[in-house]
Batch of 4 targets.
Target 1
Amino acid sequence: MMRILITGSNGFVSQKFCEQFKAENRPGALLGVSKSTNRNPNLKSTEFQQIDLSDFEALNRLLVTFKPTHILHTAAVTAVETCEQRPERAQQLNVDLTAFLGAYAKEQGCHLTFISTDFVFDGIAGPYLETDPTNPKNVYGSTKVEAEQRLLALGGSMAILRTILLYGAVADLQRSNLVLWAKKQLEANLPIDVVSDQWRMPTWVDDLAQACWLSMVQRAEGIFHISGNEMLSIEEAVRQVADFWNLDKTQITPISSAQIGQADNRPQRTGFSIEKAKKVLGYNPTAFVVSLQEIDKQLKAYLQ
């Protein structure tokens, strides 16, 4: 039986993974861990343990007790500006913790699924293959590159899932993202400034959570690109949100990356080739507009 340890269990990906796990009655045991109290509505109190993930001694005791067969490692400092301001914290959580979990997984024959990012690339030559050289433009991307390299050097049963601009809905409605932010602001008839010169392949969180499960079940190894299959500017994505919910697009003002200080520390155009994930994992992304339809249904269900 699978015994799955989930780091960062209060996070966006982890909440969706647990939601799918319970909804589909998947066999196995879950244990979520986070530095803060449990905010994952899909984890019972017996399926959660509060722990400081930078305390490796305490984490090791937990691992020895729970004996995971699989680890889903989502915990990270992901805010670009926070990583710039606190590089030592980013190093500790994004690199050192990942290496610690990788070493445990290698030693115990446990499978590790690690979430990485398109920010490992500089955005000059996207869309990218898994084999393309990395060249991050910020501390966040640099720490993810180093974490990837540490895992690959260890070898063993480990999968690195890189993803792009996550969006979607979970039952914890306090969490936001590009789609929910744009929807909320425009529904309130508030003007919004949206970057027009950054291009991404936005990833529905439901698709990434499913990819994590596929990775675990198959004990996948190596790097996989997980994203949507449509290249959109941030502005284009927001305009599609407005169209779907019949909101006023005149409230959207396009702005440049330079206007908000992101010209030098964000990749301009990323995007992925996802053929490897399709072929090896059986990954099949959802079209952006279809995901909006599903998000609309989910939001209504969460509010019931």
Note: The CA atoms of residues 196 and 281 lie 33 Å apart.
Target 2
Amino acid sequence: MGYPKARVNSVSEDDMVEWIVSDGLTDYDDAVSVMEARAAAIAAGTADEAVWLVEHPPLYTAGTSARPADLTDPDRFPVHTSRRGGQYTYHGPGQRVAYVMLDLNRRGRDIRAFVQQLEAWVIATLAEFNLRGEVREGRVGVWIARDDKPLTATGAKPEDKIAAIGIRLRKWVSFHGISINVEPDLEHFSGIVPCGITEHGVTSLVDLGLPVTMDDLDVALRHTFESRFGPTVSP
């Protein structure tokens, strides 16, 4: 199975990561099949590492730690059981999903360090738009402190999630990856407790008042990826 509606921006060369963008909405099950096949080929030494950028139709995914009670509206959108780490997430139009298929045999077999690299990639990407993304102990993903909202009952600044991270490794090759909210329908998140966290909200680049397009984000993602993970293949 090939990459649905893909624009392959580059041709593989040694020690470079193939950068792939799919137009339109990509079926989730098809995406998983493509990722698993590519990860297996990377592990076998027959394919290059890759980053694949997609959008999905509205759906929920349940990671390996998902709790049934956190699916509050099970009939709203299709629910896909996922083998990635984490709990429930939402994917849909206006959200950029970056599937990251990298060989940790070559990059160091350190899962914690790899997740921290992914977090740093997201934070650097947000910084391209003068946003300060932050990570929090005990909370997966990247968060934005909301100076424009009233303080919480505890006197703290409210924080909204702008990016999720969930990966899986097979033979030390990663798949699944990250998602960043550009302009999704934020009300769609109300059918789940995102990542099991009830006391914080969800935001997006456009919700924060930034007129960022998906293409704008893709340019920033590629630039900041190369500074942390190494070069992608030139177009």
Note: Residues 28-44 form the longest helix (17 residues).
Target 3
Amino acid sequence: MGSKLSVDDSVRVVVVGGGFGGIEAANLLKSWGIPFVLVDMRDAFHHNVAALRASVESGFAKKTFIPFSVTFKDSFRQAKVVGIDLEKQHVLLKDGDELYFSHLILATGSDGPFPGKFNKLIDMQSAIQSYEDMVKEMQKASRIVIVGGGGAGVEMAAEVKTEYPTKEVILIHSKTALADVELLPCVRQELKEILIRKGVHLLLSERVANLPTLTLNQFRENMTVRTDKGSEVVADMVILCNGIKVNSSVYSSVFSDQLASNGALKVNEHLQVKGYDNIYAIGDCTDVKEPKMAYHAALHAKVAVTNVINSLMQKPLKTYRPGSLTYLLSMGRDDGVGQINEMYAGHLFVTFVKSRDLFVSKSWKNMGQNMPC
């Protein structure tokens, strides 16, 4: 890829969602010279791989938001998408405008609790300030409870303990093993041992029973966290790290017959929404059977854009085949563990590759901008 493709005025690709898959698709379309519009309700790409560190380390959040308009100029539109008109081939915006598309790439991603996710219609500086505000709240708390022991929960616990080693951190998880079931048992066990070495207290096989009564992400002295097993923990701050769900509101009504049970879109081997030759879905909003990761979203984008181009050139479409699992977990800036394919990836490797900067410099480079100090 990289050479320019000559197309007529009828061709315009609309990319809905500016996450990892969306910006990869937009960059590829830009490099080919194909007219496109990237639509996102935010004015900046959020490198949410580093969101947890931004919530504990003052000054880090500004590295995790990268303005769209600097990279994509007039090909970026800040707006909330509220629907799709398949007959007209229009994307419908909340402000009443409509965007024509010849091809559509849905990259709406997933949503979940702050600080791991940030899907709000506010400007970049306000978003950065939200993380700085959480840092200040955390600095006041001496006892922090983290709810959820999946990938986000274990990374959050490690980030807090790395930045504030004297704080008491309790991780409550409803299962006996930490992190994702796709991971090797030895990796999951090592995650547990890293947390214990850092001084994290683990409360496993218990579920928080009074979550609706608790204040999240703010200092509130002497909150009582109760579990379904009768345990009680006193905390000054509670952070929720579970409950990720597919962002399906844009397309759920128009593609009701193409939805999986979790709201993800059913796609074929070319990542086309089933039944539609010119509509693709990539990243977390697809029902592709693989872990939902930024790395996979970018791979999806490459296949989808290749297939847009191949369809314009009347060439055979490319097939996406999920590969073996590559999953690296940062356990603070000084530690980490994971696996590549079915092989264990150790501390030194993961720390060097991911934990030190959480790929933020790579995203700034991909967006063609200079990262702030």
Note: The two ends are 32 Å apart (CA to CA).
Target 4
Amino acid sequence: MLQEAAKIPLATTKRLPLYYRFLQNFANAGQKRISSQELSDAMKIDSATIRRDFSHLGAFGKKGYGYDVQELLAFFRKTLDQDEATNVALIGVGGLGSAFLKYNFHRNHNTKITVAFDSNSPQEGEQISGIDTYHPDKIEEKIKEYGIELVILTVPSRSAQEVTDRLAHTNIKGILNFTPVRISVPAHIRVQTIDLSVELQTLIYQIKQN
């Protein structure tokens, strides 16, 4: 049984979708059980880290047997709500936003961008990469209409907080923020910021240190 979310480290929660993806690969290959070392070799994550992560989630493994692949898949499917659809909105159809629309989470059957917003789109909407796309003036109206829970934010930095303030008055639950701005949100909205320039600089630093 999953322990209280507050007791599970953030680093562990970030690895949950990866575990699910790799377990799907093993299941598709017909593998019935798997050891932490096999999972480690596939994911390039230390086996001790995997065992520790799984201990946070509950006891699955059996000594001398390993982990039942289907049992783990069922657990992660339930934990990650893979059987329930999550509607996502994209705000900002620039270079990065356009890439998101073309990709549209093809490997995740339960997660889809269902509506997008861009300042160059007309009020009445248009289709971009098969997705209904509207002018930002329609954000509040369309987020309610499409039942949006999560938003991907790829707007220019100068607009990030202004758009976020508008989103705070909707029923969204989370924002995946790709702007370098540290946006402020009310307590009921979760934010995960991915600053690509910071990630790149971190990688460069690590390379130089080696």
Note: DSSP finds eight helices and nine strands in the chain.
